[in-house]
Design goal:
This protein has 5 helices and 11 strands; from the N terminus they run βββββαββββααβαβα. The chain is an alpha+beta fold and about 200 residues long.
């Protein structure tokens, strides 16, 4: 399991390993039942002194996702909203022995009656790089993965084949944690700064 040595920066956010635990009474994405999950925790610290605790969760049966478990009191509400949704599922490409995540981007939902509600939208590589503040594809390659369209990397011909994804070695947390930060946290920070 690569990730314990995680020490990344994305824009001005610092991401560090914060330990492993077991969480009871938690739901996997798309599951109605509550269960227990293994949680690999990562602390995200902002230069404005707010912080988050993210978790890479592994559920019985093998489903995996990344979500926010904790927010400091001074975390902006538009970021705190991520604690209630927009989790990132981690999928297994059994044909290649790799894992992958889709790089849909969190954006404020203009059609919502609640001001701080967000939704996921398709993003292109330029948008991903702008949110990251660096070439996300290059950083993913440095960490041992690759970035591209689902049709090119996974060979898909489904409706979401033109969505970007990141593919990485099985059970390596560094790339999916970085992708979550870029597509959820940094995307919302940039959207908030633009509004």
């Amino acid at each position: 399991m690569k990730g314990k040595s995680l020490n990344l920066e994305a824009r001005s956010l610092k991401i560090k390993w914060a330990g492993k635990s077991v969480i009871d009474g938690i739901q996997a994405v798309g599951d109605r039942d509550y269960s227990r999950a293994q949680a690999w925790r990562y602390r995200v610290q902002s230069p404005d002194n707010w912080s988050l605790v993210l978790a890479y969760l592994v559920f019985p049966g093998g489903s995996r996702d990344i979500r926010i478990l904790e927010c400091s009191d001074d975390t902006p509400e538009y970021i705190r909203r991520l604690k209630r949704g927009l989790r990132m599922s981690v999928y297994r490409d059994t044909g290649r022995g790799k894992d992958w995540v889709e790089l849909s981007q969190a954006q404020p939902d203009p059609d919502s009656y609640r001001e701080e509600r967000s939704t996921l939208k398709q993003a292109d590589e330029i948008q991903l790089d702008q949110d990251a503040g660096f070439s996300l594809g290059s950083r993913i390659e440095q960490l041992g993965g690759s970035l591209g369209l689902r049709k090119d990397i996974l060979g898909e011909s489904k409706t979401r084949n033109n969505y970007y994804c990141a593919v990485f070695p099985h059970d390596d947390h560094r790339i999916p944690i970085l992708c979550y930060i870029v597509t959820r946290v940094l995307a919302l920070i940039r959207a908030h700064q633009r509004s």
